[in-house]
Amino acid sequence: MLGLWSLVRFVHVLGAVVWLGGQLTISALVLPAARRRLEATDRAGLMRTLGMRFGIATVIVLIPLQVATGVALAAHKGVTWSALAQPGYGRTLAGKLVAFVLVMLAAGLHGWANSAGRTVVARALAVSSLLGSFVVVLLATALPVS
After folding, report:
1. Euclidean distance between the first and final Cα of the chain, in Å?
2. What does pTM read for this prediction?
3. Which residues are within 8 A (CB) of 48 and not within 5 positions of it... i.e. 6 or more apart?
4. Chain segment 98-118, per-residue pLDDT in tens
5. b/e string for 56-66 if b means 16 or more Cβ within 10 A?
6. Burial class (CB within 10 angstroms; exposed 0-12, middle 13-18, buried 19+) of 124
7. How many CB atoms are located within 10 Å of the residue 111 CB?
8. If pLDDT is split at 50, 70 and 90, which confidence band does 62 have?
């Protein structure tokens, strides 16, 4: 049966799907097409606009959504700060939380590096954020059910 906690988990997973899906869409579909079809200045403007919109959506909607639903799910599961050091669910969740923070940090620094004109650093941070997002999802799927 679909109860409240299934809905909370669904919203949490949906937020992760939007974040990772957005990253993949921009990097695997939009950017290559923009490189082939647009001049450098037009491409830079498009990517800056997309990045700003995605960043704003992330800060205003996705991060608060993930934190709120994640905290609610952990509290419902009975997770305490000390439980994060315990083998199994606690350590896996702790790893996921560390990865999430690092991904958000890399994404934020990516925006800064882009605006500062540091394209090599920006690209490395974008790749780090994308790969880190896969780690977050991998660790989420590794969380024991019971």
Report:
1. 17
2. 0.89
3. 114
4. 999 999 999 999 999 998 999
5. eebeeebbebb
6. middle
7. 18
8. very high
Take residue 11 and report the two structure tokens written for it: 């919203």
The 3-state secondary structure of the chain reads CCCHHHHHHHHHHHHHHHHHHHHHHHHHHHHHHHHHHCCHHHHHHHHHHHHHHHHHHHHHHHHHHHHHHHHHHHHHHCCCCHHHHCCCHHHHHHHHHHHHHHHHHHHHHHHHHHHCCCHHHHHHHHHHHHHHHHHHHHHHHHCCCC
Length of the chain measured in residues: 146
Q: At what angle do helices 89-115 and 40-57 cross, to 10 degrees?
A: 140
Decide if 21 contacts 75 (C-beta within 8 A).
no
Write down the mean pLDDT value for the chain. 94
Number of structural domains in the chain: 1
Contacts of 140 (CB under 8 A, 6+ apart): 13, 16, 96
* Full residue range of the structural domain in which residue 82 is found: 4-142
Distance CA 125, CA 105 (A): 9
